[in-house]
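About this split. The held-out portion is used to measure sequence recovery: a designer receives only the structure tokens and must propose an amino acid at every position. Recovery is the fraction of positions where the proposal matches the reference. Here is one held-out target exactly as it appears in the evaluation file.
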């Protein structure tokens, strides 16, 4: 038995490189590989227990729990890697010069990845967007499926998966039709050419808005008369709605049909 193990032991103890006072062998690399795989598995398990176990008892929202869990996971991985290298006998001081040179190169080459990573942390901590929200950024509109460390996944109305860098949600203007219970106000411009007095137009628009099942009663719909001349009058209908803005199409149809039935000519 010992005769069979001897060649294996000898092969595993073959020195590859010297790092300071430490000699790195094949066995060192194999053990490091297994330890790192175990570390990543353990870090993911710690995050799951933290998010779905301990933090759930504090009545925190899922976004906040995910943010805390992600930060703890990264810190756990960083400390674990250092501990594994020291346990394996790797002299970390030997990495100082190499790490300095690599740091400059990585800082230049991976600046976008670093930017997206920290932008992801900002999104997870501040939560300007959350999973399930309908958002629009840079002309791309979709529902937020997930917010990762580097990118955010959106699903468009055509069921197309779009992956956007997290930095776009930090530096660009983002419209968020929040998937909660807060009403969002919409402004609908209406141009009337002839047929009714301004007060009558206001009454018709308010009646249409109040009869719509998609328009909330609080805050109540309002109509602003923006002025006009002998040819046309400008109005703005203000309505509030919970959810996505698809209801606007039906509301436009209702306004058009109701005013045309009154003999009112609508501008384009």
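Reference sequence for scoring:
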């Amino acid at each position: 038995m010992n005769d069979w193990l001897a060649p294996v032991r000898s092969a595993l103890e073959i020195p590859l490189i010297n790092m300071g006072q430490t000699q790195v062998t094949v066995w060192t690399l194999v053990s490091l590989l297994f330890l790192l795989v175990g570390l990543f598995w353990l870090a993911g398990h710690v995050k799951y227990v933290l998010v779905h176990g301990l933090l759930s008892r504090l009545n925190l929202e899922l976004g906040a729990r995910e943010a805390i869990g992600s930060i703890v996971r990264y810190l756990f991985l960083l400390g674990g890697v250092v501990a594994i290298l020291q346990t394996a006998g790797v002299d970390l001081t030997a990495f100082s010069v190499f790490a300095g040179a690599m740091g400059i190169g990585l800082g230049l080459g991976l600046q976008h990845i670093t930017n997206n990573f920290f932008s992801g942390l900002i999104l997870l901590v501040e939560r300007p967007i959350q999973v399930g929200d309908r958002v629009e950024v840079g002309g791309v509109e979709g529902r937020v499926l997930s917010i990762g460390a580097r990118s955010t996944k959106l699903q468009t109305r055509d069921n197309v998966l779009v992956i956007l860098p997290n930095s776009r949600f930090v530096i660009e203007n983002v419209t968020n039709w929040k998937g909660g219970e807060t009403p969002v106000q919409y402004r609908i411009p209406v141009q009337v050419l002839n047929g009714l007095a301004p007060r009558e137009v206001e009454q018709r628009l308010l009646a249409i808005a109040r009869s719509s099942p998609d328009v909330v009663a609080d805050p109540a719909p309002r109509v602003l008369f923006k002025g006009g001349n002998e040819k046309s009058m400008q109005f703005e209908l203000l309505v509030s709605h919970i959810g996505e803005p698809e209801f606007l199409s039906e509301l436009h149809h209702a306004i058009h049909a109701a005013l045309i039935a009154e003999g009112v000519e609508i501008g384009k």
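Annotator remark: Helices lie at 2-12, 26-54, 62-87, 95-109, 111-126, 168-171, 198-211, 247-261.
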